Amino acid sequence: MGAYTHLIVTPDIRSSQATAAAYDAQAAALRAASAGREQQATERAADNVSLRDAVRSRGSEAMHEQHRYAAVDFGRSAEAHGGTAEFFEDTARVMRDVVARHSEIDREAHDQISKAKPFEIPTIVAEYHQRARRCTERAAEALVHAQARWARTHGVTYASLTARWSIPQAPPAAPTPPVSPG
Hints:
This protein has 182 residues and is mainly α. It is built from four helices and no strands.
């Protein structure tokens, strides 16, 4: 960090590794949940076959049908949790990329500042601040698109199955930029 870092990468556009790590942790939890749901779906399907062969009575077909639906729901839940984990992994990657790009922009700016005359410094700072801001804006756009893609592919399934099976839900949302201290 240089003397002008706080002017180049201002708090309103700064991302952090800690935020990315939190998304990674959530993704890992969702991956584990996905694996658990997949195992439950496999076990449920196998149990359904043995139960169907063992129980044949009036009304048992309705029971078997409900068990088949549950097995399918566990499979869909595993897929939705996996897709949601992927969304969180993508979000963490974008956050880390922003941190890396901001560091690069800051380093380039300080290299230019070290070679500049004093009256050129404000222009250099403004130029590199705009680069850092554009980097953050592109990242925010990427996160909005990622969330829209998640909502189209896995979001509805994730929400409906977690509601149906009363699974505690942490719906992903695109991270909001920190509030400007100004």
